Amino acid sequence: MARSAFLTVVLSITVTTATYLGLHFVVKPRLPVHAVDVPSLTGLTPEQARGLLEPRGLLLILDEERPEAGVAPGTLMDQRPLAGSRLRRGEDVHAVVSKAAAPVKVPRLAGLTVDAARDLLDQQKLKVGAVVEATSPTVAKGQIIGSTPAAGADAKADATVDLQVSSGPAAAAVPSVVGKSRSGAKTVLEKAGFTCEGRLRKAVIKDGRVLDQLMYARIREDGYFGDVASR
Fold it and tell me: Which of 115, 114, 110, 90 is nearest to 34 (CA)?
């Protein structure tokens, strides 16, 4: 009697196991698979994406965060598989989250040419913006006086930096010395910042006085020399 009961239990377990294995490995693969369409997640926040995926039985997997130009921080990009694909319920959809790019420092550009400044800005992922000329008594013509934003300021990647470029010292008017003596004319010119390099012509001197002015003077400002003529 006991032996018969034991055999019955063993047989029952064997049949149950065989039934399970047959359903799992033979019948189940032949059943139609319920697949769902993968929606587009690009430009959505992770919360919005989960709101679309979860009702479809899909899971969102965030692979990484990285900055990307033109993509709003905190939104999704690089979705895998692409929108329109079909997945079984319970499968994963992968995506990358965009984050804000770290700010870059505006480099010191003073004293550089525009071309040299452009190369340096390119290395920092910045661009040359407006280029405006301004006079300067201390910065040679063609060299940069300063920038906006200033050197050391934080800027976003791909931002523009405006440049102020020296056009050299401002031109100075030669003061009138008509009616003055030679020494007096020289004094007036030197006080105005000129170094007399020319001579007062004899034709315009009478009785030691200047009757007409035809003088070439030279502006001297921090090593820059520019000829100025006035009559």
Answer: 90
The runs of H, that is alpha helices, within the chain are 2-22, 46-53, 114-123, 182-191
In degrees, rounded to 5, the angle at the alpha carbon of residue 9 between the alpha carbons of residues 7 and 12 is 110
Q: Which candidate, 108, 140, 142, places its Cα nearest to that of 124?
A: 108
Tell me the β-bridge partners of 59.
Answer: 92
Whether pTM > 0.70 for this model: the answer is no
DSSP state letter for 54:
G
Q: From CA 22, how far away is CA 24, in angstroms rounded?
A: 6
Domains and CATH numbers, the chain: 2-99 (3.30.10.20), 104-166 (3.30.10.20), 182-230 (no CATH)
Q: What is the pLDDT of residues 29-64, one digit of tens each?
A: 665 557 899 999 999 999 999 999 999 999 999 999
- Two tokens at 7? 């055999």
Q: Are residues 200 and 186 in contact, defined by beta-carbon separation less than 8 angstroms? A: no
Q: Which residues pair with 90 in a beta bridge?
A: none
